[in-house]
């Protein structure tokens, strides 16, 4: 790298029940900061105050599954093509970005995409809540 430091590429890994961190390669991440807004209106309907509640981060991880063994097998890779259970805890590590590392809850609407021109890709939508997203964590599964 020359010039100024910047973030290039994706480091880190994810893991959940049935799929260990060494069986996937994170190839895409989309993070959204969300919250609800309550409006206080006067008699004429004009907003005179606002407050925010229910802050949450929503992220979609895009991963490619593979067998990390050498030489590895297609059967092992196929056995790891699993979407997490509803609200399962997904652990993110070694990204080096506070908003990403830690635990998340899988919130469904996952996707497994097949193509004849590339690798199988999975999308895993996840969420965590908290007023400070840098220290937020997944809700425990009960």
How would you describe what is shown here?
The chain has one helix at residues 74-79; strands at 13-15, 24-41, 47-65, 89-93, 102-106, 111-113, 121-129. It is mainly beta. The protein has a single domain (13-129), classed as Elongation Factor Tu (Ef-tu), domain 3, CATH 2.40.30. Strands 1, 2, 3, 4, 5, 6 and 7 form a seven-stranded antiparallel beta sheet that branches. The protein is elongated, with a radius of gyration of 19 Å. The mean pLDDT is 90.
**Helicity, in percent?**
under 10%
Computed CA radius of gyration, to the nearest angstrom: 19 Å
Tell me the number of strands.
7
Mean pLDDT: 90
Précis, in short:
With 142 residues, the chain is mainly beta. The protein is 4% helix and 44% strand.
Characteristics of this structure?
142 residues, mainly beta, Elongation Factor Tu (Ef-tu), domain 3, 7-stranded antiparallel beta sheet, 1 helix, 7 strands, 4% helix
Topology:
Elements: E1 13-15, E2 24-41, E3 47-65, H1 74-79, E4 89-93, E5 102-106, E6 111-113, E7 121-129
Antiparallel strand pairs: 1-4, 2-3, 3-7, 4-5, 5-7, 6-7
